[in-house]
Design goal:
Helix content is about 30%, strand content about 35%. Strand 7 and strand 8 form a beta hairpin. The chain contains four helices and eight strands. The longest helix is centred in the middle third of the chain and has 15 residues. It has a single domain, classed as 3-Layer(aba) Sandwich (Aminopeptidase). The two termini are about 30 Å apart. It has about 160 residues and is an alpha+beta fold.
């Protein structure tokens, strides 16, 4: 397996939508409730500042992806936000770290000064450990900030990384 992270192509959109929807269906990480379809997926990904995929260059299979966009506007427009998704069958292979590292570099190259995560679910220990390993700083805890799929609320932890 030879994983490369690259900007997405139109041919990747269906696979990106599938990976995104897998995380939404899981209901433990992304705030979205609605699944993407071919049309809404295309519109969603095209409206991001940047989207990239993790591809196994040996097989051509897309195993993960991320989106990058401004977190706010105007005087706070220098702060960006990102979301990452790795296919459940490819987790634990270091793909998440490759995606986050690539995103940090692309965000800086696009002129952003800070990458901020608004709502990392406190129980998402793998994501939190990765972000802290890569130098993200936790800002605190927001009690009951995330509605889990089963209907209970979990705390969220905002993070930031200076670019």
């Amino acid at each position: 397996m030879n994983i490369v992270v690259r900007e997405y192509k139109n041919d990747d959109l269906n696979r990106m939508t599938d990976i995104w929807n897998e995380v939404v269906k899981d209901g433990t990480a992304f705030p979205q409730l609605e699944l993407l379809n071919e049309k809404t997926g295309r519109e969603f990904f095209e409206n991001q500042t940047c989207c990239a995929v993790a591809e196994d260059s040996d097989s051509g299979e897309i195993l993960g992806m991320y989106i990058l966009h401004p977190n706010n506007v105007g005087r706070c427009g220098h702060i960006c936000n990102a979301s990452y998704a790795v296919d459940s069958g490819a987790r634990g292979l270091g793909i998440g770290e490759m995606l986050v590292s690539d995103c940090l570099e692309r965000a800086k190259n696009k002129g952003f000064k800070i990458l901020q995560f608004n709502a990392v679910v406190k129980t998402n220990k793998a994501a939190r450990a990765l972000y802290e390993k890569l130098g993200f700083v936790q800002l605190g805890v927001i009690p009951d900030g995330f509605l889990m799929k089963d209907g209970h609320y979990e705390d969220i932890c905002p993070y930031y990384h200076l670019l």
